[in-house]
Amino acid sequence: MRILITNDDGINAPGLKALEEIAAEIAGPEGEVWTVAPAFEQSGVGHCISYSKPMMLAELAPRRYAAEGTPADCVLAALGDAMPGRPDLVLSGVNRGNNAAENTLYSGTIGAALEAALQGLPAIALSQFLGPRIIEREDIFEAARVHGAAVVRALVERAPWDESADYQLFYSVNFPPVPGAEVKGVRATAQGWRRDAFFSTEATNSPSGRRFLWVKGGPQHTPTLPGTDAVANLEGYVSVTPMRADFTAHDRLAELGGIFS
């Protein structure tokens, strides 16, 4: 199996090293793991692509590239330039922090998987929820390392992919904020919503007196509704959420049609 990996934390991120290990186990001794990741951190860029400017792509080692672009750019760079032929699977992550609930909409990790799906490729985004039980540990990605390959293998071998659909399925996997040995299992979940956990801005002044705004997130340990991603993670479970790029609210189409008929 030929696997492409990328992330949004950057080419030198520890989570990418964890993903390399997961991908190598899935690819097997006869497979290939290709890395095309951002040269610098690209957290929060979503599905952004560098449409109005070029990007530089640097080969760091065989099958390993750094792109001065976004995670979605990295997928495009791999397919259009770096890789000979198409990969069998695209993995994005392992993100430092969860991409559950509303974080999904901002995530560059998700954006890379979404772009791969739009290109007709099976794709999985992997993220590690952080919390007080693991943040001081030597390896904060332990849960992802211990359970990542098994979850990916189950999705590759047994999950639906809907290759013929206009908007192909991809998957978001979030590992809980607990040590690997304390993970309780895996749950299929919907995307949740953290109430009162909005992104906001905070003003600060530089030493020169200039005023700047920092964007900051809301509380991450607010439980979401039962059956959704963040609450499963906070209860110690890996969450697996099937996703599509189709934003249509299909449950409202008939009502809207009645208004304009």
Automatic annotation (TrEMBL):
Its cofactor is a divalent metal cation. Keywords: Cytoplasm, Hydrolase, Metal-binding, Nucleotide-binding. Its main location: cytoplasm. Residues 3-195 form the Survival protein SurE-like phosphatase/nucleotidase domain. A divalent metal cation binds at D8, D9, S43, N95. Transmembrane segments: none annotated. Signal peptide: none annotated. It catalyses: a ribonucleoside 5'-phosphate + H2O = a ribonucleoside + phosphate. Binds 1 divalent metal cation per subunit. Its EC number is 3.1.3.5. The keyword Phosphoprotein does not apply. It is found in: Cytoplasm. Nucleotidase that shows phosphatase activity on nucleoside 5'-monophosphates. HAMAP family: SurE. Belongs to the SurE nucleotidase family. This is 5'-nucleotidase SurE. It comes from Sinisalibacter lacisalsi.
